[in-house]
């Protein structure tokens, strides 16, 4: 005998005695009907006890199929309708565009896609189109040109750099205000993978490629802040961090040791610390409300305000005409500027 309580929990009796249950939202990938049987494709906690049906905060998961035998085909069909109805109400994506960077991290994106991501998408009945990046900024171009009506989300199998490129591509589009609303997913295949780690942590999930893929399948969403950075005639959008000095040097200059994988960062960090450079910088800023304890108040008040010019321009690096998102026109004329003196 099986029950489906308000669509959420699937519980059935085992032939051997005892009960088994699955939380549909957090454990079921998909299902299919085979005559009187319903084959449930699930991703369950390795430690899940026979009688427990609790999903949510999971450790390592394993792929499992369960076949529930129904008394008749008609009953199986009716079960299938109820399950379909509930899964459809969960706002899971149906079609995704996958951008895969074969060059990121330890160059493992292809293997990750074929061995983990694709089998889970297939089990969840999610259609996909995949495209490998062929050069730097290719992901930005793809996001800039993509027909977004065809997809419910863009998924990057990459490091954070490719995700940043996708955000930049979306914000350069004429239709940036609708384009930027498309859900973005990240499956870690880079060096640092900070975004995937943060997102999984917030969702209460252990960091793993499988869990990141399942988060995409479940349509887990969170809003993301985007910062606009203007540097001379160049404008770009940042979603993670902006660094200068030692951290930036380690990130950029360690590229030549990419073959080392994650170790390149630690290795180059030691190298740079042993030959420490002096960074002479001077930072002037308007603190966010409640953060005016950083730095010193600026004394001369006349020359510190800036107005961000939002007029169209041609980006010097990518030659993409900047017709997309123009950052808000912000005047800091009457703001209280503060400063941090060199060396920082
Ligand atoms: N086929 C390619 N050849 C060379 N570079 C590429 C190719 N595809 C993408 N890239 C570039 O690879 C860079 C790194 O990408 P990605 O962010 O995926 O990995 P990572 O830097 O190893 O990871 P993380 O950002 O998490 O530290 C990006 O700047 C991207 O433009």
From TrEMBL:
- Disordered as annotated region, ranges: 313-332
Membrane protein topology class: Peripheral membrane protein
UniProt feature coiled coil, ranges:
none
Domain DAGKc residues, every copy: 91-233
For this UniProt record, give its keywords in alphabetical order, as a comma-separated list.
ATP-binding, Kinase, Membrane, Nucleotide-binding, Transferase
- Which EC numbers does the record give? 2.7.1.91
Instruction: Offer one example of a GO biological process linked to this entry.
Output: sphingosine biosynthetic process
The entry's cellular-component GO terms read: vacuolar membrane
Any transmembrane segments, and where? none
Q: Which Pfam families match?
A: DAGK_cat
The residue ranges flagged as biased composition, category Polar residues, are 321-332
In which compartments does the protein localize?
Vacuole membrane
Transferase listed as a keyword: yes
Molecular function (GO) terms listed? ATP binding; sphingosine kinase activity
Q: Which SUPFAM superfamilies match?
A: NAD kinase/diacylglycerol kinase-like
Q: Which InterPro entries match?
A: ATP-NAD_kinase_N, Diacylglycerol_kinase_cat_dom, Lipid_Phosphate_FormReg, NAD/diacylglycerol_kinase_sf
Per the record's keyword annotation, is Ribosomal protein included, yes or no? no
**Protein name per the record:** sphingosine kinase
């Amino acid at each position: 005998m099986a029950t489906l309580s308000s669509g959420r929990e699937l519980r059935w009796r085992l032939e051997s005695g005892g009960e088994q249950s699955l939380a549909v939202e957090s454990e079921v990938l998909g299902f299919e009907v085979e005559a009187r049987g319903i084959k449930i494709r699930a991703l369950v906690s390795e430690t899940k006890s026979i009688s427990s049906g609790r999903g949510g905060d999971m450790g390592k998961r394993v792929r499992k199929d369960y076949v529930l035998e129904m008394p008749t085909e008609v009953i199986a069909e009716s079960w299938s309708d109820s399950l379909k109805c509930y899964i459809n109400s969960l706002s899971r994506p149906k079609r995704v565009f996958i951008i895969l960077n074969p060059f990121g991290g330890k160059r493992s994106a292809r293997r990750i896609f074929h061995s983990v991501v694709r089998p889970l998408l297939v089990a969840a009945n999610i259609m996909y189109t995949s495209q490998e990046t062929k050069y730097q900024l290719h992901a930005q171009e793809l996001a800039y040109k993509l027909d977004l009506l065809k997809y419910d989300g863009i998924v990057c199998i990459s490091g954070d750099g490719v995700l940043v490129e996708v955000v930049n591509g979306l914000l350069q589009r004429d239709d940036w205000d609708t384009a930027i609303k498309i859900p973005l997913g990240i499956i870690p295949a880079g060096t640092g993978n900070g975004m995937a780690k943060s997102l999984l942590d917030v969702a209460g999930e252990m960091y793993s490629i499988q869990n990141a893929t399942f988060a995409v399948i479940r349509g887990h969403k969170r809003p993301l802040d985007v910062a606009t950075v203007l540097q001379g005639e160049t404008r770009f959008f940042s979603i993670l961090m902006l660094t200068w000095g030692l951290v930036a040097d380690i990130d950029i200059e360690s590229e030549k040791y990419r073959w080392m994988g994650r170790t390149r960062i630690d290795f180059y960090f030691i190298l740079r610390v042993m030959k420490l450079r002096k960074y002479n910088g001077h930072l002037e800023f308007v603190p966010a409300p409640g953060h005016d304890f950083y730095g010193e108040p600026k004394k001369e008040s006349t020359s510190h305000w800036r107005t961000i010019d939002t007029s169209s321009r041609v980006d010097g690096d990518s030659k993409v005409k900047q017709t997309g998102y123009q950052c808000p026109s912000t005047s800091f004329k009457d703001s209280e500027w503060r400063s941090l003196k060199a060396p920082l």
